[in-house]
What we know:
By secondary structure, this protein is mainly beta. It contains three helices and 13 strands. A six-stranded antiparallel sheet has the order 3-4-5-2-1-6. A four-stranded mixed sheet has the order 8-7-13-12, with no helix packed on it.
Amino acid sequence: MEQYQNIGKFVSTFGIKGELVMEHHLGEEVCFDNIKALFIEEGQGRFIPYFLASAKSRKEGEMLILLEGIGTPEKARLLVRKKVWLPEQDVKQIASASAPIGWLGFDVYDGKKLLGKVLEVIEQPAQILLRLEINEKEVLVPLNESTLVRIDLKKQRIQVELPDGLLDIYLT
């Protein structure tokens, strides 16, 4: 089954053609040239494709999106506040190397111990959470100034120093 990653959400309509303003967390200078469709979750695990007519960068963290079949502001308003998803391989292709969403698939180490691969990046105001799977259990690893040691983009490794007992909460 194809894995999808949340890249942002539609926050408003723009103009009279049915364009949508999408806030995203893909980093700066994002190019959607090779992206054919965006996906909206219409139920648990059911993603509906909306084909791109155009995508223009508006400012950092925002794009102006025109979807095929959405040619009026009224139709576009139905998608406002909806989360936007892309297949993971597309996210890896277009995300800026410095954007946290580009860390999908990175190995996470606590000291010398491999914890697992980053399955999802959840951005919050005070910290970033990395979703991993350890012993078939979901684990959320917080990244903040007290836990993050180093990110090696070349080796695709994230080094953390987790507080004692944090993993025990998830694994026992």
